């Protein structure tokens, strides 16, 4: 592939007694591998949830022709002072999206807090659709475009906003995903979001108490079995790079 640098998918997962501590991933060039491996290793070792007893770094070659490039979702921030105010704002947004079973979905959301991946929930029937309910469905193989500036901070360490926007953008672009709800499980990060193609990426500045290790995500799905299989394959296998805007005010 003349003219195209070799790209690699780099994934980090860290756990303590089989409990999730930290995870992150990048799609990078060969030259970036040493520095990025060290950055993710240090991130795993210095996480606020504790010291891991297991760290896995996985590196896979990626064919550039397999990569789908997507524009980042539009971003909006709603300032909320308390978790209750944040949840009320989420409920209001879901009502404007004409989603059914809102209160029940918000209750089910809490069941995702102990899961390794995301819950995949049918928006109409409220049936859980993950092949493995303990593992959930992981949206993987994604990053911001390598040549793009990453709003908020340099290309190192953890940037909750950038990483969440990349994930939310990938997820929202599958035609059978109606919305995503997410709260970070980091104890020192209380911001969450609701995202979809319709509303963009809407940040709620407070969705849980400071110091809480609770957090999880739900993908709201609507479709048939064939579309479900395609959706899971897209979330877990499709390589995606997200073209980040030059400047975002958050």
Explained architecture:
The chain has helices at residues 33-45, 83-96, 102-109, 160-172, 225-237, and strands at residues 7-16, 19-29, 54-62, 67-71, 75-78, 119-122, 142-144, 177-183, 192-196, 200-204, 216-221, 239-243. Helix content is 24%, strand content 30%. It contains five helices and twelve strands. The strands form three sheets. Strands 5-10-9-8-11-6 form a six-stranded mixed β-sheet, with helices on both faces. Strands 2-1-3 form a three-stranded antiparallel β-sheet, covered by helices on one side. Mean pLDDT is 90; it is low at 147-156.
In short:
The protein has helices spanning 33-45, 83-96, 102-109, 160-172, 225-237; strands at residues 7-16, 19-29, 54-62, 67-71, 75-78, 119-122, 142-144, 177-183, 192-196, 200-204, 216-221, 239-243. With 250 residues, the chain is α/β, with parallel strands linked by helices.
């Amino acid at each position: 592939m003349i003219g195209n640098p070799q790209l690699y998918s780099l994934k980090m997962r860290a756990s303590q007694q089989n409990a999730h501590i930290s995870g992150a991933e990048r799609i990078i060039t060969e030259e970036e591998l040493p520095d990025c491996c060290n950055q993710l290793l240090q991130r795993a070792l210095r996480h606020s949830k504790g010291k891991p007893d297991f760290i896995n770094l996985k590196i896979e070659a990626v064919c550039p022709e397999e990569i789908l490039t997507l524009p980042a979702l539009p971003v909006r921030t709603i300032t909320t002072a308390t978790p209750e105010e944040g949840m009320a704002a989420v409920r209001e947004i879901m009502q404007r999206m004409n989603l059914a079973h809102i209160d029940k979905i918000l209750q089910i959301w809490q069941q995702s807090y102990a899961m390794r991946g995301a819950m995949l929930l049918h928006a109409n029937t409220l049936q859980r659709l993950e092949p493995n309910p303990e593992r959930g469905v992981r949206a993987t193989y994604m990053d911001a475009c390598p040549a793009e500036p990453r709003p908020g901070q340099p290309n190192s360490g953890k940037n909750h906003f950038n990483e969440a926007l990349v994930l939310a953008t990938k997820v929202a672009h599958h035609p059978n995903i109606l919305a995503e709800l997410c709260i970070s499980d980091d104890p020192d990060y209380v911001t969450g979001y609701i995202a979809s193609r319709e509303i963009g990426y809407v940040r709620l500045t407070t969705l849980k108490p400071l110091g809480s290790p609770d957090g999880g995500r739900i993908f709201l799905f609507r479709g048939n079995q064939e579309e479900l299989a395609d959706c899971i394959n897209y979330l877990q296998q499709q390589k995606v790079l997200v073209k980040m805007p030059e400047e975002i005010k958050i």
